[in-house]
């Protein structure tokens, strides 16, 4: 039976609480040394109760069987983590169709021959969902994610998926660069990727429980991407064929740049900036 150990606010000195099972100590310690936070071990048969902490001040990064982000406070939503394996959508995409997906249309998969592998740079990967779709459809995807905690989730998801037979071939086409795209872009050659894909943070008013849970922790951890407009210029330079920007329906154009064309959905849209035909 698990022992519940209740963390008290006076015990927590950092906004990010890094909880780790003993077998993940080295990874958690390395994270804290590099990026900060307060490390606390989760002993075997012990559960740490985070409900007394202030959800506006504290967030937990948990290193256990999976790496997850956990809200604090009373009645917090469940943990946020990356799970690529066992994905019904990926199974469907791998076994026929899929180019009708909006993100696939936006990237231009319908315009290339079946044996050509598009190279896509996802500059704001987040939890990697769109990258996973594109990789399942045969693209080679290079992901950038600048937030260290989100990178831990994404790398952990890739690691677990790499030994899951149903998606091993898909994640082999996905790689993660643990850098800020804007900072790293000066070292990336002009037109070295077919497509650059951008999905910067923006206020999301969706009422679904899943989005509310994830947006709660992401907004607390990251806030808004105040420098999102700075993504456009390097993205345009690095792309050979097009830049694709995913935006909420009512959001302004990124960097006030009018797109060449748009694909609109019920709650969002893809703004597409074309350079040359495939």
From TrEMBL:
Its main location: cytoplasm. GO terms for molecular function: rRNA (guanine-N2-)-methyltransferase activity. One of its GO terms (cellular component) is cytoplasm. Signal peptide: none annotated. InterPro entries: 16SrRNA_methylTrfase_J, SAM-dependent_MTases_sf. S-adenosyl-L-methionine binds at residues 129-130, 145-146, 199. It is an enzyme of class 2 (transferase). It catalyses: guanosine(1516) in 16S rRNA + S-adenosyl-L-methionine = N(2)-methylguanosine(1516) in 16S rRNA + S-adenosyl-L-homocysteine + H(+). It comes from the Bacteria. The keyword Transferase applies. It is found in: Cytoplasm. Its EC number is 2.1.1.242. Keywords: Cytoplasm, Methyltransferase, rRNA processing, S-adenosyl-L-methionine, Transferase. CDD domains: AdoMet_MTases. Specifically methylates the guanosine in position 1516 of 16S rRNA. PANTHER family: RIBOSOMAL RNA SMALL SUBUNIT METHYLTRANSFERASE J (PTHR36112). Belongs to the methyltransferase superfamily. RsmJ family. This is Ribosomal RNA small subunit methyltransferase J. The gene is rsmJ.
